[in-house]
């Protein structure tokens, strides 16, 4: 077997292993970023004031049971 071919195979294998590790780290960072966004969105939604429900008038006080 040619030495340069062996070295090429070793280099390729090392590069693929490095790429897999890099991909795993990138996925972990992406998941963490999504978790942070989810937490921030929940905090923003909880900070919104609840609008009062309609208690009088025709708008929002009657249920159309025929729809």
Features:
single chain, 67 residues, mainly alpha
Question: What does this entry look like structurally?
Answer:
The chain is an all-alpha fold and 67 residues long. The chain is 67% helix and 0% strand. It contains 1 helix and no strands. The chain has one helix spanning 3-47. 0% of the residues are buried.
Strand content: under 5%
Oligomer: single chain
First-to-last CA distance: 79 Å
Q: Would you count the extended β strands for me?
A: 0
What kind of sheet is the major sheet? none
The gyration radius over C-alpha positions equals: 29 Å
Shape: rod-shaped
The H/E string reads H
Q: What percent of residues adopt helix (DSSP H or I)?
A: 55-70%
Low-confidence runs (pLDDT<50, min 5 residues)? none
Supply the number of helical segments: 1
Query: What is the overall pLDDT average?
Result: 85
Q: Provide the structure class.
A: mainly alpha
Give a short synopsis of this structure.
It contains one helix and no strands. The protein has one helix at residues 3-47.
Write the SSE topology.
Layout: H1 3-47
